[in-house]
Amino acid sequence: MTTVLFTGFPGFLGSALLPRTLRRDPEARAVALVQERWMDRAREALADIERDDPSVAGRTDLVVGDITTTGLGLDAAVRSRLLADRLEIFHLAAVYDLSVAPEIAWRVNVEGTRQVVAFAREAADGAGLRRLQYVSTCYVSGRYDGIFDESDLELGQAFANHYDHTKHEAERVVVKARDAGLPVTIYRPSVVVGDSTTGRTQKYDGPYYVLQLLARQGGTAFMPLPPGADRVAFNLVPSDFVVDGIAALAGHEAAVGRTVALAQPDPPTVVEMCEAFAARLGKRLRVVPTPTSLAGFGIDHVPGVGRLFQVPSSTLEYLTHPTIYDTAATTALLAEVGVRCPTFDEHVGPMVEYFLAHPEVGTAAMV
């Protein structure tokens, strides 16, 4: 029997992938490793999943653990039971906050991944490891100026924040284990936004800060953007594409050993994205050329500017992000399992409609 271990539950990806994985293998059981402080939320999420799909009811155990500690902080009996079965691991847990303190980012994203990989190696040496499914990010590219291929990782790139840097270091850990023979698939989403059909999302961050800024203004909306924003791509993908891609490739043998760029093959430029947002808000867009350094300084240091714009300065670097993501190999691989990335034009409407209909959604994520 296969046991599927999830980290990062009850976050968005874990909650979406857990039932899909159990449906893929009717004989499998799931174990969700949950921090103690999130256990009540995990129980609620699991109850929702089992109510929506009775076929997976009773097949998931919630266990207390901590990916940053040896043995994942698991009870000895639970650990022994996991290692006695053929194991599949979905490592989804990470700190996603761009402004996170460096010590937290390194502990969770890098040390946590080291501990998960160590546990995967134990499983491989025991009853067997089916696969380690690891979610990274396209932004392991850092600020590489050029085309970044799915197989690229070490190109001497610089990093704008601790999130990108720590996810790069964590992927290095996974790649080293993969190259040593561990069965691994690495998934690299770009900026994830709402569902392509409903627009539903758990949080408003990233490009939603632009939406919020435009929505607060009158019929003519002024958007400060860095020079060259009409040539810089902003790569955003709907959440259902990311879930569909991971769920389908997790059971696809051709994905073993691969790195998958879950990114938009034809992304809009920053200006095109802002124009699309403004049009769907019923506004005229006026771009105000503003160097990123000047905007960041104003937000962080000039009284009233941060409150006016309500945009974290840490997000501004993505408005000048120089990297283009080559998705050709991923697109071909996804075609084998019937998954296609919706175009920006196809999903921007539901994204804006959901944003307007749900002002209660916040910017916070689980950490």
UniProtKB/TrEMBL annotation:
Family matches, as Pfam families: NAD_binding_4 (PF07993)
InterPro entries reported for this sequence: FAR (IPR026055), FAR_NAD-bd (IPR013120), NAD(P)-bd_dom_sf (IPR036291)
Residue ranges occupied by any Thioester reductase (TE) domain in the UniProt entry: 7-245
CDD domains cross-referenced by the UniProt entry: MupV_like_SDR_e (cd05263)
Classification via Gene3D superfamilies: NAD(P)-binding Rossmann-like Domain
PANTHER family, alphabetized: FATTY ACYL-COA REDUCTASE CG8306-RELATED, MALE STERILITY PROTEIN 2-RELATED
Name under which the protein is recorded: SDR family oxidoreductase
Naturally occurring in which organism (per UniProt): Actinomycetospora atypica
